[in-house]
Structure formats: C-alpha cells, structure tokens
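## retry 2 of 3
previous attempt timed out at serialization; input unchanged, resubmitting
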Amino acid sequence: MAKLRLEDFEGNPDMDRLDYEARLAALQHQLELIQAAYINQGRTAIIALEGWDAAGKGGLITRMVGPLDHRYTKVWSISAPTKQEAEHHYLWRFWQRLPGAREIAVFDRTWYGRVLIERIDGFAAPDVWARAYDEINAFEALLAADGMRIVKLFLHITQEEQDKRLEERLETPWKRWKTGVDDYHNRSRRAAYWDAYHDMFDRTSTKVAPWTAIAANDKKTARINGLLKVVDVLGEDVDLTYPPVDPELRKTAEKALGKKLDL
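## retry succeeded, writing output
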C-alpha cells in the first residue's frame, strides 16, 4: 500500500458549479439507495473524518447526511472528553456512539485524537499515545470483522487556504461561531500536526480501514471526492435491489385504496 503524503494533495482545480450540482445530486441519490439497502439488510457503517481546522469537514457532512433518513443516521461532533469520559479508557466514549444495526454513524473528529491533539499538546504521555496505534487498529479490525463498513477520510488544505478561511470566519458574523482561539493554537503547531498525521497514516491505514486523503482547497471538489469514496466503500457488493412488497401489506393497501396496485 502506497504511503499517503499530504504534499501530494495540495492542488485541486475549482469545479464548475453546474457540474458540481449535477454530480452532487447523483451521489446523494446513490447514498439514499445504499442507506435503504442498509436498513433492509441490517447493515451498519462508520464514516470517520479528520483534517485541518476549517478544511471543510462540516460542509461535507452536511451534503452527505442531508438526503439520508435521520432516524438511521447519527452525526457525532467530537470535542474534549467530559469528566466522566476521561475517567474511562479513551475508546469508551466511542463504543457508546457506535451505530447499531441499520444505522450509519458519522464522526466529525474521532478516536484519533489520542495520536493527534493528545500527543501534540502533551495530554497523553509518549508511551501512552505510542501504543494507541495498535489499540486503534485492533478496535477497527474488531468492528470490520463484525461486518461494519469503515470509511476514513482526511481533508487537506494548504496553510494559505486555511488562513483565508479563518479570516473569512471572523469577517462573517454568522460564521464566527465556527472559530476560536484553539484554531490559532493548532495553526501554530502545524509542523507537529504534519508529522503526527503522517505517522497516523503510516501506522493505521490498514486493509480493513484504509485512510483516504482528499485535496480540499476547493470545497466543491472535496465534497464530490468525499462522497465518491463513501459511495464506493458503503456500496461495494451490497445488493441494491428492492425487496418485494409484503403480501399482507399489499392486500391491506389495495383494500384501503380500492384498487389493484401494479407493483
């Protein structure tokens, strides 16, 4: 498996608006069909997103889950653990959020915080975060062996693009809630994060749960490429044919509607 290197994901051209809207609609419809199959067949999946601050994770998630049935879709925005969560093993809070049968769970930041922010800001000792790679691999392998599909996406933007977006968030009143001093602290540690991300790719991009890096300087291109990967992984070898109508339901419907149904 070729190693992921972020410098290979820094040049994506702007996508034409009309092309974007057409491709977005097609991919969203495909996701609807895939979710219907997951509901009918009792399947389950995780979509895990990491990336730089302001890389567009929220925008991608919005387009991803918008057309889906929210009864079977969970979005988890992960921040610092609560006092109760911190008293348990770091994976404990993620076990609580795993999807059940027929559900798709989306994680906006993930269990990889142990080898990212906790490593970089010293919240975990070196021996603690160093052993987390194997723990995470075992965690994901266990989920995959149980039939869960796992998609791991990393959104990459250049420093120049990140600065542009951070400035825009300050200048646009209704976007200010998206930013805070932590963004600028993390920005100052870009070199450390760069190294940590590459270690994460090298140590945890496995056969059952590989990482996919996405060039995200252009938001439209990133959204399309992210959705393409989700559709590819979640839809692989999944029967998308519709189940037949239950005979009793058909009989009841025809009686209530007063006509034969052409189904």
